[in-house]
Amino acid sequence: MSERVMSERSPEQIHAQIRELLDSLYRVDSGRILATLIRLLGDFDLAEEAMHEAFAAALRVWPRSGVPGNPRPWLISTARNKAIDTLRRRTRFDASQDELAHYIEAQASSAERSNPEQSLDDDFLEDDRLRLIFTCCHPSLAPEARVALTLREVCGLTTEEIAKAFLITPQTLAQRIVRAKAKIRETRIPYEVPMPKELPERLGAVLQVIYLVFNEGYSAAAGAEVTRAELTGEAIRLGRLLLELRPEAEVTGLLALMLLQESRRAARTSPAGELILLENQDRALWNREQIAEGVALLEKALKSQQKSRRFGPYTLQAAIAAVHAEAESVAATDWQQIVALYDQLVRIQPSSVVQLNRAVAIAMRDGPEAGLAHIDAVLEPSSGKQGELANYYLAHSARADMYRRLGRTAEARTSYEKALSLTQQEPERQFLQERIRQLK
Asked: Residue 432: is it exposed, middle or buried by C-beta count within 10 angstroms (0-12/13-18/19+)?
């Protein structure tokens, strides 16, 4: 905003316009700014406090001096200086803070002397975002802490928003974040993108966190709604960001999978919030733009992995989702292809949930008797131990559906009641209760 344009407006108008600009900058750029400040300051809380002080300073200064040509470096430099001032004030209580302030000042001066433009340019800032993602998703942090920290620091969600989405108290969520930050600080988890030899393990942790966020949004663990659009939206946004910063085949596969799954969201519940199974969904409500983008990304991922013939789990799941998305109905779905894809997935990711999904696909291909045999094999205890899915309501719901289709009413009722006792999601409970009522 030029000085001439500013002079033609009243102080109130200028202030309102600057506030609107800063609100927009915060929405769009606060993630990048925070990531860079964490690199410069080495402390999550100090970086966040300094960033907010810098935005407040801009609201005071810019109406008088005008908006800088490149606001982001101004905000970062101001925040860094605010952090140094904060540490200086703390030295009267803790001498180590003075040492930290000297270190930050020296690092900043060194970076600016060596390359004054590069330290805050767009490419460097994007590298900082990638560093932040890998730091928040470090394998040494507990999975729930990774999710909380990523949503808070990378996505910018408030503590209250995250706590509400995961149906826990803000205090519990805040404690997770505090513990995660403390572990990063105390164990000196490096703020960096892993070396190429470390990338497979570390990238896997990042992808797992993003998919955990998506799954909680796609099928909420509890509560009054089947889905939580704010979480699926954040997961997809994270997937896009990661793909932009690290265009790996499995990142592409994960984004494809999330888009293909999300494309069905509008058809998964009735206007009253009731659950609608895949076989009864109105496919005209499926989001065709998301399907087209998901399929295009899947083809790209498959092409990247074709030479090695080693397909990643997210890419294979995306391929399964694409078969569903491109079918006109459940009856017209290529279940043979889906089972074949699950066969590949079981080989590289032999989890009980994958085996359960494969069993359901076998039932659609070969009939409920065959499906039931495979579900029983997954559910039954082995080596004297309780089966992994013994308390997974979808496993008992799937078994109940096989019994229902076979006309084994008593066994179907028992399995539906077991599933009902294990779910806390209200639409699922209503669906299962209705299934029990329909049994004769």
From this structure: buried
* H helical segments located in 42-70: 44-65
Burial class (CB in 10 A: 0-12, 13-18, 19+), 2: exposed
Rounded CA-CA distance 229/247 in Å is: 25
- How do residues 245-296 score in pLDDT, each as one tens digit? 788 999 999 999 999 999 999 999 888 888 899 999 999 999 999 999 999 9
Instruction: Write the pLDDT tens digit of every residue in 343-365.
Output: 999 999 888 899 999 999 999 99
Nearest-angstrom CA–CA distance, 140 and 61: 42
Find, among 166, 171, 152, the residue nearest to 44 by Cα.
152
Distance (Å, whole) CA 372 – CA 407:
13
Residues 199 and 250: beta-carbon distance below 8 Å: no
CB-based contacts of 17: which residues, under 8 Å, 6+ apart? 1, 9
Total-model pTM: 0.75
C-alpha 83/C-alpha 48 separation (Å) is 10
